[in-house]
Amino acid sequence: RDALITACKVHSTLVHSVNDKIMFKKSFSTQVAEVSLLEGVLNEQSISEILPVVMLQLYINPCLHLFVSPALILFSFWPAKTLFNGSVHDAYSYINEVFKCEFVTLNNVDEQDIYNEALVFLRDTECIDAKTGELGPNNKVRLILQHLLQPFITGYSIVAHTLLEMSVQSVRGTQDTILIYSQKIARNLLAKRLIHPYCLSRDMLKNALESFRLLNFITKNVSNTEIQYLPNEKQLLRLISVFDTSEINNKKEPKCRL
């Protein structure tokens, strides 16, 4: 409780405590936002609602490297069975590569060591059963870890859907066009309360685009001094399948083990 009170004081321009509940301040100024980047995507009222959440997420992001590997392993249980021949490690490696531009790990640290350390954490917290290799009984910690990933899983999926949709409609795929198009899709989903506000983060969407380029999910094409991105449909459809969270949302346990 004391820690929450202190946090509210530190972030008093964003939130305040009302009857033991943390509430966003409605009078929050949007002047710090680059409103011009969202022109045609969000109105000022929408920005005033979304911006505090995005700013708070920016405080969380630097700490995510402590939890992202365990979270990615847990998430990997779902696509492992159908898309990676039952290998959680292969699913994890694939997803970890996708997020290379998003979550920065220490240099000169072996990826296998990071994976093994994450497994120790998951076994110690009973998120994974040490004997069977299946998901363990600690649903609370599992839920927290999966929740941390959700904005990024959804955001990257939105960019993938955007690239495929723009290709079908023969829309020119410049970076700005792709980002604005992605934000519009995110805006519509947010209006229905289906996604986290951070899914509109331009920085995250740019990271997704760069990651897709590095992994050859898209091809960077320079013509007439304009840079366009051409989608690799097969790779993007695979990514969308991997990031499908319907079974997780339905609380369907994956029939898979380490």
List keywords for this structure.
mainly alpha, two-stranded antiparallel ribbon, globular, GPAT/DHAPAT, two-stranded antiparallel sheet, transferase
Assembly category: single chain
pLDDT average, as an integer?
81
Structural class of the secondary structure composition?
A: mainly alpha
Widest beta sheet: strand line-up:
1-2
What's the order of the H and E elements? HEEHHHHHHHEEHH
Question: What do you see in this structure?
Answer:
It contains 10 helices and 4 strands, in the order αββαααααααββαα. Strand 1 (15-18) and strand 2 (21-24) form a beta hairpin. Helix 3 (68-83) packs across helix 6 (139-168). The relative contact order is 0.12. The longest helix is centred in the middle third of the chain and has 30 residues, at 139-168. It has one domain (1-26, 43-247). The chain has 258 residues and is mainly α. InterPro entries: GPAT/DHAPAT, GPAT/DHAPAT_C.
